[in-house]
């Protein structure tokens, strides 16, 4: 799949780090480092602009290494870039740790995954088909 992209950063395009990786690592594009205090969030620019094909979304997901080592995640995880969005890709990072974290220019801050999606039309109904689970909600599966 080809996706048109404009790179206004000083960093390489998002890239797969291994042969079978699903996500492409994306870099922070910062004029100066950004310090995230515990529970603080910040919108981190990437300098990237892209045109996602209709019928697809670009998911923005946390990097497992940042999450495990530093407690850094993405507030709206996964974030979605829609096919009609043409603005700069920015990543909404949050520091879930108890210590400050400094985001450096060029640091790999998230991963991008392209996913196909369907567009639905609601079909109003008066009742729904029965299932074994029924209306059982949170924590209801596996309970006897």
UniProtKB/TrEMBL annotation:
<dbReference type="InterPro" id="IPR008181">
    <property type="entry name" value="dUTPase"/>
</dbReference>
<protein>
    <recommendedName>
        <fullName>Deoxyuridine 5'-triphosphate nucleotidohydrolase</fullName>
        <ecNumber>3.6.1.23</ecNumber>
    </recommendedName>
</protein>
<comment type="function">
    <text>This enzyme is involved in nucleotide metabolism: it produces dUMP, the immediate precursor of thymidine nucleotides and it decreases the intracellular concentration of dUTP so that uracil cannot be incorporated into DNA.</text>
</comment>
<dbReference type="InterPro" id="IPR029054">
    <property type="entry name" value="dUTPase-like"/>
</dbReference>
<keyword id="KW-0378">Hydrolase</keyword>
<comment type="similarity">
    <text>Belongs to the dUTPase family.</text>
</comment>
<keyword id="KW-0460">Magnesium</keyword>
<comment type="pathway">
    <text>Pyrimidine metabolism; dUMP biosynthesis; dUMP from dCTP (dUTP route): step 2/2.</text>
</comment>
<feature type="binding site">
    <location>
        <begin position="63"/>
        <end position="65"/>
    </location>
    <ligand>
        <name>substrate</name>
    </ligand>
</feature>
<feature type="domain" description="dUTPase-like">
    <location>
        <begin position="12"/>
        <end position="142"/>
    </location>
</feature>
<dbReference type="InterPro" id="IPR036157">
    <property type="entry name" value="dUTPase-like_sf"/>
</dbReference>
<dbReference type="InterPro" id="IPR033704">
    <property type="entry name" value="dUTPase_trimeric"/>
</dbReference>
<keyword id="KW-0479">Metal-binding</keyword>
<keyword id="KW-0546">Nucleotide metabolism</keyword>
<feature type="binding site">
    <location>
        <begin position="80"/>
        <end position="82"/>
    </location>
    <ligand>
        <name>substrate</name>
    </ligand>
</feature>
<dbReference type="Pfam" id="PF00692">
    <property type="entry name" value="dUTPase"/>
</dbReference>
<feature type="binding site">
    <location>
        <position position="76"/>
    </location>
    <ligand>
        <name>substrate</name>
    </ligand>
</feature>
């Amino acid at each position: 799949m080809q996706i048109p992209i404009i790179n206004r950063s000083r960093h390489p395009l998002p890239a797969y780090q291994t042969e079978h990786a699903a996500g492409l690592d994306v870099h922070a594009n910062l004029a100066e480092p950004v310090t995230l205090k515990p529970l603080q969030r910040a919108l981190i620019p990437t300098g990237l602009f892209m045109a996602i094909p209709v019928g697809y979304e670009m998911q923005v997901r946390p990097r497992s290494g940042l999450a495990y080592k530093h407690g850094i995640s993405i507030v709206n995880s996964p974030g979605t870039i829609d096919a009609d969005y043409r603005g700069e890709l920015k990543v909404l990072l949050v520091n879930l740790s108890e210590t400050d974290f400094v985001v450096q220019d060029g640091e790999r801050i998230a991963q991008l995954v392209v996913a196909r999606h369907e567009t639905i039309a609601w079909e109003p109904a008066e009742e729904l088909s029965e299932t074994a689970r029924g209306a059982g909600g949170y924590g209801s599966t596996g309970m006897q």
